[in-house]
Design brief:
Radius of gyration: 21 Å
Strand content: 35-45%
Oligomer: single chain
Number of helices: 1
Structural class: mainly beta
Shape: globular
Order of helices and strands: HEEEEEEEEEEEEEEEEEEEEEEEEEEEEE
Largest sheet: 6 strands, antiparallel
Length: 420
């Protein structure tokens, strides 16, 4: 076969491969009033069928919700029932106790588990949390209608104040990152929940050479003891030095490949050191998540680098057997978190575990009329059981701002559907 015939054949194969495209984008939760972000996301709650739960919230400051409520759907998210208020803030003599529940996941045994970050903040400031967050779990046997009493995740032989080595609540913390940090499962039902760890310096204080102390990510490894109880272990670290990423290696997302390898993709940052390139990072486990290889720059499968801001991302294993990544890729070196746009989807090469450049498609970006501070992040994705589209809810942060007032949190959340 001549060279031009090889090129033609390659073009035909690429053209015949399923192409990703945005099918729809609609408002899922509208800002209730000026200055307030309207947030929301949804998920399935049963092993089979199309029953769903949606949780909504409002926000007027970073990483802190003011109100939350839920609604249920029996028709795959087309319509939703009445609001049910969620209690997640409690005033105590020690401070404000906050519960940050993450989207529940359906286990192979049909049970639902819900992980949450929990913390008591003396003056209710997010800056107090890095030394105090703890992780808890609950189990539902009835599709999320009721849950068991929440239990703190603690390793065998450890205590609530010292839940694992190297954690000492009040000095450093363990926490789940964004809604994209979704647990996955091994074939035997073992739970792998990706988390991040705040490190301590040699003097016992938070290790913060630049800003945040989350220089390592790990995996909580859970095994069922009975219908309602899980025993937990902590994996080895996936760590990056501040010389490579100033805010750490955090908000990990996981996927298990058919050959048994587990891929972890991580958020990094070049905040306060913008001569560093803003990259995405990755590592691989060959022993079911117990230990992790060297953390390296995540590139395109052809070896080419790309820029990515400090933001969450998510790996989604599709029923077709294809693996997809959703997140931000920008055309210039970012400055820390920004710009968190455009928002893209791309397919992961399951041999190299790198991103296939030719598959990357922009799903949203700055539009005419958007405030220039608009960014696209903080989402949760899943596969629609009827259409097999990838669905995710994501705020278009600050798009509706009318001026440069950074205290204006006016934001609508949209539900996107992507054809695969």
């Amino acid at each position: 076969m001549m060279k031009w015939e090889y090129l033609l054949l390659a073009a035909v194969i690429y053209a015949s491969a399923p192409q990703m495209k945005l099918v729809s984008k609609e408002i899922f939760m509208k800002s209730p009033e000026k200055g307030v972000a309207g947030l929301g996301c949804c998920w399935y709650v049963e092993q089979n069928g199309i029953r769903m739960e949606a949780v909504y919230g409002t926000q007027t400051r970073s990483d802190m919700n003011d109100r939350k409520w839920r609604r249920w759907s029996n028709d795959n998210g087309k319509t939703w029932g009445k609001e049910e208020e969620i209690s997640f803030i409690r005033k105590t003599p020690e401070g404000t106790y906050r519960i940050g529940s993450h989207p529940p996941v359906i286990c192979p045994n049909g049970h639902l588990i819900r992980l949450s970050n929990r913390v008591c903040l003396p003056t209710d400031k997010v800056s107090e949390a890095a030394s105090r967050w703890t992780i808890w779990y609950e189990v539902s046997l009835d599709g999320g209608k009721t849950y068991t009493e929440a239990k703190q995740i603690i390793g065998k032989g450890f205590t609530s104040d010292h839940p694992f080595e190297p954690l000492f609540v009040g000095k450093n913390c363990y926490m789940i990152g964004d809604q994209t940090c979704v647990p996955i499962f091994l074939p035997d039902g073992t739970i792998l929940a990706p988390i991040q760890i705040a490190e301590l310096d040699p003097k016992g204080g938070l290790y913060q050479p630049y800003t945040t102390p989350f220089y390592q990510s790990r995996v909580l490894i859970g095994k069922w003891k009975d219908n309602k109880t899980i025993s937990w272990e902590l994996s080895g670290p996936a760590r990056l030095a501040p010389e490579l990423t100033t805010r750490g290696a955090f908000e990990p997302t996981l996927a298990r490949i058919g050959d048994g390898r587990i891929l972890m993709v991580l958020r990094g940052s070049n905040m306060k050191k913008t001569e560093l390139p803003g990259r995405r990072w990755y590592c691989i486990s060959n022993d079911n998540g117990r230990t992790w290889g060297e953390v390296r720059e995540w590139t395109y499968a052809n070896g080419e680098s790309f820029f990515s801001p400090s933001s969450c991302s998510q790996l989604v294993m599709h029923s077709s057997g294809r693996l997809f990544w959703l997140g931000n890729i920008c055309d210039k070196n970012p400055n820390g978190n920004l710009p968190r746009r455009p928002f893209v989807v791309g397919e992961v090469d399951q041999k190299t575990l790198l991103l296939k450049k030719e598959t990357v498609v922009a799903l949203d970006d700055l539009k005419p009329g958007d405030n220039l501070t608009m960014n696209l992040s903080n989402f949760h994705a899943f596969e629609d059981r009827k259409t097999h589209e990838i669905v995710f809810c994501m705020p278009r942060w600050y798009a509706n701002r009318k001026d440069a007032d950074t205290s204006d949190w006016t934001t609508d959340t949209y539900r996107y559907r992507v054809h695969i």
